[in-house]
Fold this sequence. Notes:
Elements: H1 2-20, E1 34-69, H2 77-91, H3 97-121, E2 125-155, E3 158-164, E4 171-177
Antiparallel strand pairs: 1-2, 1-4, 2-3
Helix pairs in contact: 2-3
Amino acid sequence: MKTSIAILGISAAALLGAQALPAHAGDYGDNGPVRYGYAKVVRVEPLVRMMDVSYPRRECWNEQVTRYDDPGPASATPTIVGGIVGGVLGHQVGKGNGRTVGAIAGTLLGASVARDIYRDSRRPVAYTDTVERCRVREVHRTEQRIDGYRVTYRYRGQTFTSRMARDPGERIRVQVAVTPID
């Protein structure tokens, strides 16, 4: 019988202790037990912030440029041929040693004239061409960015407003703290 009374006493104490615990055992805030519920979202307003944003933009245009055709490597043939022709013509002038002097002078003069004519004809040929030029520039513009949401919600007949990082939808979970008043 003593055992039955002891068991009955322990059971009664356990029942009374269970009623004193909060809804979620172990959930205690700074001021006492904490409970959770759901509140109906009444209004959601995005909080917009103006930001300066920069991004790269490629710009291209057509430009006229002058190019030169290289006539290629120089040839010694015109100088040699001019020297031979000048030497033959110079040899025709004068008599005796004068022919030798005429041939030497004609060779030098003929080679020089032929070289100058050849050089003048070999100048690079200029022509105009269209070339596409491009560059990348940083472009700045002001954009609107959502910086959060002002959420108005109703819980047990009272209306509250909070700032949230995302749109919560139709309802939000709220924390309800129970604090005893002395």
